[in-house]
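During the first year of the project, the team set up a workflow for recording each protein of interest as an amino acid sequence followed immediately by a discrete structure-token representation. This format lets reviewers and collaborators read both layers of information side by side without switching files. As required by the reporting guidelines, we include two representative entries from the current panel. The first entry is reproduced here exactly as it appears in our internal archive.
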Amino acid sequence: MSAGLEKTEAQLKKAYAELDVIRERKTDIIEKEKAAMSHIESLENQRILQIVDIYRLNGDDLKKKLAAIMPANAPKSVTGTTTVINERNNENEKNN
């Protein structure tokens, strides 16, 4: 083998090894993110139960209280959907 090819092969092997390390770190970060999100969800649920218990709230009152204390970055629920109908219009088609 030529020296240039051997050097390229060595660089390629090193690059793949670095990619493997990056992917392992990425997997670890994703797992940590999932754990953190689960912990946050648990704390949010605990807070909701405590608020309901403290104020003896009914459903509407609970919604109002939660809306007042939800952080700005909390995920919002979808309020509605829109149906879209796409029709194909081709002048070459025959109308029946």
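The second entry, processed by the same pipeline in the following quarter, appears below.
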Amino acid sequence: MVLPQFTSRGMSAEASFLKAFEAASPGTHANVFDVGANNGRWTSQWETAMREAPKRGQSLSVFFFEPQPVFKESLMQLATRMNATFLPLAVGRRAGMVEMIGKVGSVSTHAEEIREEDTTSHKKTLVPMVDFAAFLRDKLSGGGRYNFLKLDVEGMEYTLLPWLLAHSHVTLCRLHSMLIEWHLNYVALPHRLDAYALELSFLSQLRLGCPDDLAPVGVWMEKYPTNNFDQPIPGLLENSLIHAKWEGWSRRKRQDTGKREVANLAAQASATTNMAANAACSTRRVACHTSSTGFHEDNCMFDRITCDPRLAYSTYLRALNHPVNTTGTGECAAGLPMPPWKLNALNQ
């Protein structure tokens, strides 16, 4: 089957990157990093762009990572055909060997906790791992800005991204575009609140960690429903109540106010057709800006929370000491002593 190729037409992450690259001067070099290539489908869609670049006096290199042995032979053939670079490696915070875990009969491999009674349904593979911050630093040391990173590592993004943020001045800040696929369902329950905090604050951390003249132009977030929605996040409601505007109110007043806000959200949702909502929010690019728009009046509420530094404050330096919980939305999430009434927040 011939796959459609990425072009500069449209509004996708790939199209926006190619549009900027094609408008650059002759002699410009671009890099595409596909981390979590799986069967190589996404990687192969850059083949035409690689072939067309020399016609403009430009060049485009593609590097793709996939540690699963089941794909090694076919990906080596793809790399030869495209004149790209295939690295059968896992990526992480250090160089060495890592044990990857996957379900028997599946072509999806990731790190996860295994219950003792369920070990027979999993297979373990020992694979080499590269320090991805060091890899990016070396590949991007030339100073070019046309670099695209696609990250699809099935839960490892919550460990890898803090490491890259800690070295952002030589890694993420040198990218033109990023495409991140989040997998909250692969995170163990006790760590999901920290992981979700990283999701919400990632753009703020990136903005704080990069100089104004050196930061990605576009960051796209992909949150597939099966990977993220309807996933319990222990502690999310309690932390929301602690930092909500009605903290300290009586239980009755909180309930009444909450009901009114839920009603407002429901009314807004019913007044907005699916078509209008898709037109407003379907693009994966997050438009980072602040606004005085009411919390319940915004169809793109998640994007606004993600981009608003007032709602998602952080510092990327904390990533050095906190691999997952690199950020917080207040004193409790920042690792400071929590109020003694936190566990009873719902019963006050």
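For the second entry, the following points were noted during internal review. Residues 103-121, 272-278, 280-348 have pLDDT under 50 and may be disordered. The chain has two domains: 13-228, 236-347. Both points are flagged for discussion at the upcoming steering committee meeting.
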